[in-house]
């Protein structure tokens, strides 16, 4: 896999459909199968978090369940 696939600056970012226009929201991008990147939509040049697919799926499960994952 190329290092370009892991580069969030070249990723196709998408914002939640639950976000209204102009509201702060997170954006996510698939890093060519290598993982998921997350950033603040109001600061696209700012820091980016990256997760492996297992970690991302676990995070989503915890968020959807409303528990702390323990």
Automatic annotation (TrEMBL):
This is DUF397 domain-containing protein. Residues 1-23 are annotated as: Disordered. Pfam families: DUF397. Residues 11-64 form the DUF397 domain.
């Amino acid at each position: 896999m190329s290092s370009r696939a892991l580069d969030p600056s070249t990723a196709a970012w998408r914002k939640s459909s639950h976000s209204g226009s102009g509201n702060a929201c997170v954006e996510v991008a698939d890093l060519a199968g290598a993982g998921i990147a997350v950033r603040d939509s109001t600061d696209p040049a700012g820091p980016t978090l990256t997760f492996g697919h297992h970690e991302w799926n676990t995070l989503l499960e915890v968020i959807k369940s409303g528990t702390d994952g323990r």
